[in-house]
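Exam revision sheet. Question 4 asks you to relate a sequence to its structure. Input first:
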Amino acid sequence: MVQEASNTAVRELAVRAAEASEAGSELRIIVMGMLRDQGKYPEARAMLEGVVAAREAAESAGEGKVEDTLDAKGFLAQIMGIQGQLVEGRGVLEEVVAGWKGVEGWEENTDAAMALMILGTVMMQQGDLENARTTLQEALKIKEAKLGAGDSSTLATKGNLAIIMMKQGDL
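Answer key, structure tokens:
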């Protein structure tokens, strides 16, 4: 009964969010998180694709921020990865990282660092260790400067780098 009520609430929010303008895309991101947490990845992906389209349209009209579009694309790539679509997800992540590198001050942006870390992790999973190492080192530089050496996200990046270095015989 509780699950049914939750599903009904999520569906209601999804319908309202789908009808919302760009201002409602934050609501759609929240609904996507709920769908993802319930294991409803196709629905979450569809929701995110709508958010990305809305944010790209707003950006083209001069009403949106590139950073918002990049964040939505990053979430989309994560869902693709969860669904086992690493190749497609990597392509989206590469677009996201390239987009962040076009934003002034990206070298100090923790969202850019997160995109780099996720891309580096996907590269590592695909066996592209050299590119993964370079990408993760870039992420680590930002994270250490902005979050500190003891931050959990910084430590996760260090852990992934250590795995790569072990696989390459450098540790």
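Marking note for examiners. The mean pLDDT is 87.
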